């Protein structure tokens, strides 16, 4: 019986030992992201955006709710301009899936980063469902996370965090 308990406890510890779940008000976990492809097609290091407001949007082309959020992300970019860096983090199986999606369905004229569905970072950051947006403040803390940044909550949450007025459309 004692051996059985040890064997059952160890896998639980092993699965969570390296997990760095994202939590509002805490520092965004220290991770090493791959290069970011900018809206102009240049490749830059993720770290080059540190010190700015960053909206990371973990998504995939096959995720219906993720695709529904794309026009809202576009509006956020229009609303907040250079005061907000948006990076879509793809969990698709291949970068080609994202490229085809951007050509056929939505151009997504903002920054992109490809992780893939089996990336260790997905597990390390405890990204269990998508879409999973994260707002990182210039000091590196998580200012807002997940449902606060989804749907109609996106623009008001960003406006409050960035202390920017919400532009109204006529």
**Measured distance between first and last alpha carbons:** 70 Å
Relative helix content? 25-40%
Mean pLDDT level = 87
Q: Enumerate the spans where pLDDT stays under 50 for 5 or more consecutive residues.
A: 1-17
Query: What's the shape?
Result: globular
How large a portion of the residues is in β-strands, by DSSP E?
15-25%
What structural category arises from helix and sheet content? alpha/beta
What Rg, in angstroms, do the CA atoms define?
17 Å
User: Which sequence of strands runs across the widest sheet?
Assistant: 5-4-3-6-7
Number of strands: 7
Give helix and strand order, one letter per element, not per position.
Answer: HEEEHEHEHEEH
Helix count, DSSP H or I runs of 4 or more residues: 5
Largest sheet: 5 strands, mixed
